[in-house]
Predict the 3D structure of the following.
Amino acid sequence: MDTRVAKKKLGLKDRYAAMTRGLAWETTYQPMDKVFPYDQYEGIRIHDWDRWEDPFRLTMDAYWKYQGEKEKKLYAVIEAFAQNNGQLGVTDARYINALKLFLQGVTPLEYCAHRGFAHVGRQFRGAGARVACQMQSIDELRHYQTETHALSQYNKYFNGMHRANHWYDRVWYLSVPKSFFEDAMSAGPFEFLTAVSFSFEYVLTNLLFVPFMSGAAHNGDMSTVTFGFSAQSDESRHMTLGIECIKFMLEQDPANVPIVQRWIDKWFWRGYRLLTIVAMMQDYMLPKRVMSWKEAWEMYAESNGGALFKDLARYGIREPAGWADACEGKHHISHQAWNAFYNYNVAAPLHTWVPQDSELDWLSEKYPESFDALYRPRLEYFRERQQQGERFYSKTLPMLCNTCQIPMVFTEPGRPDEISYREGRYLGDVYHFCSDHCKGIFEQEPEKYVQSWLPVHQIYQGNCFKPGADPTAEGFDPLAEVLAYYEMGEGTDNLDFEGSQDQKNFAAWRGESTTAKGEAS
Ligand code: FE
Ligand code: ZN
């Protein structure tokens, strides 16, 4: 009979450590610095990579199992949604424009995150950080795919989705998210984690996902809600990575603090500017509102973010430089952005509209300090013009901020009747900015930002026409040529929602009359 040997049971943390620690190695025939050339040039000092706490605590084996199970559930819902013509169950066809914005401007970022994490996951000499980045890289690829699949049903029935990837690389407002991620991906590995994992995923992500996903739930879009749930558990792992990498850098060496602070200042501001489209979506594009941008900002940024920065104060980190201006902006940015989209709707593959009376009243109630005085009269004037058959579309091109790439639509903090405008010089050329913060970001790394691909500049330089277009030909219509280059359906993908194909189709499918919504017939 064998003697029974009592096996010592390891706790979860120890078991995880036993499976994952000590598996990496120091290189011998090449120096480590040559194998990992990128993790030092940013100036971040790491003395002991073993102090890195793995944020995910998942073995690869368990990871695949969890993710596989989530996939199965998600695809069952997506399939049922398609079979039951779920696209007809949404509140009204205006809602689809929030999905267009998501597919055009957010989904491609998932793919960029996939690439970015795959890249930095190769660059850290600490194995814990490498594994965490590898898993997140795979998550992000999955998000890109599941979002695309979940929304593909809508693409069969609505305009504004069929060329989303093509638009991402060309259309004016999509260069805002694109340049955000290209800036992060072309930074060093520690800055990338500060930008994406910390500033975006940890500090700001609730402001992106909660409005879109609860907006979907309120507006009857079960397919997007299910995707949201499926991504949620990944999201919490990503947030953990965000806070872990910040604490790790700050604890390793006090010399890291000013570098990290500079990155937090920069990436908080870039993330905040990027979220302008979410603010607009929340206040204007959801037929059934969840909460206003201002309320979301107060809850997720001012109170949660405020507590976070108090907590980080013990490391010598303070609130991001743009914090106070971002808080002041909560009264304004959604209205200013919608105004820009409404005016430049010829060149935007989604529809805009003037909110209905009940919606204007909701905005008045949610924005007592700004809406009635500044924004409501303008919208009512737009509606008046539209009802007279004179819907206004701007045919000019706006000046863009060289850093965030948003048109000059924002106003001075505390002076909402004055456009905020800054300029700076570098090597004899003049550059324009929307704010002190975007100007400050440029001045830290001018060599980087003079390379910005600014859509308006590119149009003026003649780079946004199809081959064969001849700007010297008689009757050359630059706007029409740019739309051809965008591969945007003129009159189907763009212009006002009133009278659009989307509106008419949806009404016909639901057996409603479009005139019921107040359209003059
Ligand atoms: Fe993601
Ligand atoms: Zn800017």
Q: What stands out?
A: The pocket of fe (iii) ion (ligand 1) is lined by residues 110, 113, 140, 143 (CB under 6 Å).
